[in-house]
Design goal:
A hairpin with a 2-residue loop joins strand 2 and strand 3. The protein has 22 helices and 14 strands. Helix content is 53%, strand content 14%. It is of the alpha/beta class. Helix 4 packs antiparallel against helix 15 (297-338). Among the domains are: 182-278, no CATH class; 410-514, Phosphohistidine domain (Glucose Oxidase, domain 1).
């Protein structure tokens, strides 16, 4: 029987397709690389890994709630402190991007062992110091019970009281960032490139075909400047779906996409105008609401912090995914020198890499056990990885909070983008599952990430387990103007492919109309 005084651990998140080369630096920066005002509250976490998936990450409930509550107080009482933290976060992300871009151009095979270690440690350092700096606002405040989203919803309700405005519309508009995401910037660049393709008769004829292999083999027959732009776009943006393990896009992804746009005769000029006008359009929408509802400077400040958090979360994720794409190239070289597979090398803790390279060896059986099942316990400044029976024994020694899922006829979550839709459920958690997604389906996911955007663009509505206005699904759904409910916690466990559901994203409600047998 568990000791009543024993701390209770709560599952805070899980991640598909991830490994220890992300995990071990991320855990350290979550606990150590934070602004002084947030440091020292979170002291401990437990990460459970099976195969290439994080099946659960736990925090002591008392520490987790103390950290979230403290963050919310600072946002409301010291907004100038949060603004400074966000400015510093942006600077650190910029540095991480530049570091990753520079290291991606190095010929790793020509490096000595010490030089390779130096390159590896440099990218890991920037991965750590940027990630932890705004982790309190860009993750934790909505990670447990969507505390920040609920605070903002309550604020929106008070602002619209007695007016003709709808809460969901005001909430969505006033927390939308003015600055476009990198995904929007890439899409704008893509449409400008398609516009060039459409203006050249030879290029338009080539891209009007469905045979992508033929298109790729014929690029050298296009004007040199145009073919160079096509290849440059591919090289600049192919990392976007990489997340932690990859793969990145291949050239045929872009050629297929642009071929489809060309055949469908979609007007590039209209798309360019729409994307180019994003910031001014959002600014005008916000200004009208600010004026009509006579919103105070204090409330404007809070809503601006929310918009900054949403932008930073996306930008921080982009930096991590680009960094992991570059890091993977470094890990491939390390794998070669240690005579390990890439999967085995990814199972190394970051602190093990330098010594392994200097010795020229690391036990493969240890890494295989980690990949099969392991538990990483980090407390204060020390981390220990348990494997096999020892991992299960350690996990069993913890007093884990129990999750209870009841039979329900409707689900509730947080409004991410208002609107209504009705359709068949498709569970999409991995890129390889996107093939079953049809236009008009209701996309349901544990969480979303850039590689799933093609499926999100087909969805009549989007539903996720994870939530808060800062999550990827919330950000993308607003850009797509697709109804979205996040933070249901149990959607992927209650719903199945083919279930008929009705989504009222304005109220955050999903009604189950008919369950598939």
């Amino acid at each position: 029987m568990a000791n009543k005084k024993q701390k209770i651990w709560r599952k805070n998140f899980s991640i598909l397709n991830v490994h220890y080369q992300f995990v071990t630096p991320a855990v350290v920066d979550m606990l150590l690389y934070q602004p002084p005002i947030f440091k020292g509250i979170l002291k401990e976490l437990v990460w459970a890994q099976k195969d290439d998936n994080n099946i659960a990450t736990y925090f002591p409930i008392e520490e987790l709630r103390k950290f979230i509550d403290h963050t919310l107080r600072v946002i409301q009482t010291q907004p100038e402190m949060i603004n400074k933290i966000h400015l510093e976060t942006t600077r650190r992300i910029d540095v991480y991007f530049k570091c990753s871009a520079r290291l991606s151009k190095i010929n790793l095979k020509k490096l000595t062992t010490d030089q390779l270690i130096e390159v590896y440690q440099e990218i890991i350092h920037h991965q750590m110091v940027h990630h932890g700096w705004a982790i309190s606002t860009t993750w934790f405040i909505d990670s447990d019970d969507e505390d920040f989203s609920k605070l903002l919803l309550k604020k929106a309700e008070a602002l619209v009281k007695g007016s003709a405005y709808q809460v969901a519309d005001v909430f969505s508009t006033l927390t939308t960032p003015l600055k476009p995401s990198l995904a929007m910037i890439e899409e704008l660049a893509a449409w400008k490139l398609v516009q060039e393709i459409r203006r050249n008769k030879k290029a338009e004829a080539l891209f009007s075909q469905k045979n992508v292999i033929l298109i790729e083999n014929s690029l050298d027959k296009l004007p040199l400047a145009l073919s160079q732009k096509i290849l440059a776009h591919f090289k600049k943006w192919r990392w976007q779906p990489f997340t932690y393990i990859g793969p990145a896009y291949e050239l045929n992804y872009y050629l297929s996409l642009w071929s489809g746009w060309t055949r469908e005769k979609i007007n590039p000029a209209a798309k360019i105008k729409e994307l180019s006008g994003y910031s001014s359009r959002v600014q005008a929408e916000k200004a009208k609401i600010f004026k009509d509802l006579k919103i105070s400077p204090e409330d404007k400040g809070l809503l601006q912090i929310a918009a900054d958090i949403i932008y930073l979360k996306a930008y921080r994720k982009d930096a991590i995914f680009f960094g992991m794409y570059v890091l993977d190239k470094i890990l491939k070289e390390i794998s070669s020198r240690l005579d390990l597979s890439l999967g085995q090398t990814r199972a190394l803790a970051y602190w093990e890499v330098a010594s392994a390279l200097r010795r020229g060896h690391f036990p493969a059986d240890v890494l295989n056990e980690r990949r099969s099942f392991s538990v990483y316990h980090h407390k204060n400044k020390k981390g220990v990885i348990y494997t096999g029976a020892a991992a299960q024994k350690f996990l069993n020694s913890l007093r884990l909070e129990k999750e209870v899922i009841k039979k329900v006829s409707e689900l509730h979550g947080t409004v991410a983008c208002p609107g209504k839709a009705k359709g068949r459920v498709k569970i999409i958690n991995l890129p390889e599952e996107m093939g079953k997604m049809n236009a008009g389906d209701i996309m349901v996911a544990h969480t979303t990430f850039p590689a799933l955007v093609p499926a999100m663009k087909k969805a009549a509505a989007i539903i996720t387990d994870d939530g808060g206005i800062t999550c990827h699904a919330a950000i993308v759904s607003r850009e797509l103007k697709t109804p979205c409910v996040v933070g249901t916690k149990i959607a992927t466990r209650v719903l199945k492919d083919g279930d008929l559901v009705e989504v009222d994203a304005g109220k955050g409600i999903i009604k189950i109309i008919k369950k598939i047998k």
